[in-house]
Amino acid sequence: GVEAFFLVVFAPKKMTRSEGYRCNTRHLFKRAFRGKGPTHISTYLTTFRLGDHVTIKANSSIHKGMPHKYYHGKTGRVWNITPRAVGVEVNKRVRNQIIRKKIHVRIEHVKKSKCREDFLRRAKENQIKLAEARAKGEKFSLKREPGWPKPGVIVAVNKPIETIKPVPYEFLV
């Protein structure tokens, strides 16, 4: 009677799962293998210009100016530069729309992106190829093309062709 009542009313509540600002970042913010220790001076000497493509990669050893875990790994463009931080414009998908977010991130959590290296290299190569084609008077396509199928080949066989068949199943007792 009374004991059961006290157990029901005053039973300890289970601890709920907290959803803090840095929840689920145990592996996300982990420093790389052989990448632990103090921040290198080259991090602070990197120059960023307006319009640069940068990748947001949070450095967990520096808590100041750290971006939210959502932006970790995202690439954006620099829209503002302050003495210790850069303003980065990032796209964020919210339900069915993509919103441009402007966030300020300290320099320790940002690195120059390599997303345009391949495009710029290809553009230079295309300009050289185009100049050569014009000098020869040929037409030249600047478009990327997929690997086309290779032409067919007839294979010469010296030995007679052997057909392999499965052995019929026999119930053995």
How far the N terminus sits from the C terminus, by CA atoms, comes to 69 Å
**Number of E-state strands:** 5
User: Largest sheet, described in full?
Assistant: 5 strands, antiparallel
Lateral arrangement of strands in the main beta sheet: 4-3-2-1-5
**Share of residues in helices:** 10-25%
Q: What is the CA-based Rg, rounded? A: 31 Å
The average pLDDT score comes to 90
Query: What characteristic shape results from the CA principal axes?
Result: flat
> How many helical stretches?
3
Order of H and E elements: HHEEEEEH
Q: Tell me the β content.
A: 15-25%
Coarse structural class: alpha+beta
- Uncertain regions: pLDDT < 50 for 5+ in a row? none
Outline the structure in words.
The protein contains three helices and five strands, in the order ααβββββα. The longest helix is centred in the last third of the chain and has 20 residues, at 117-136. The chain has a five-stranded antiparallel sheet, with no helix packed on it. Helices cover 19% and strands 20% of the residues. The termini are far apart. By secondary structure, it is of the alpha+beta class. It has helices at 2-9, 41-45, 117-136, and strands spanning 53-56, 75-81, 85-94, 97-106, 110-112.
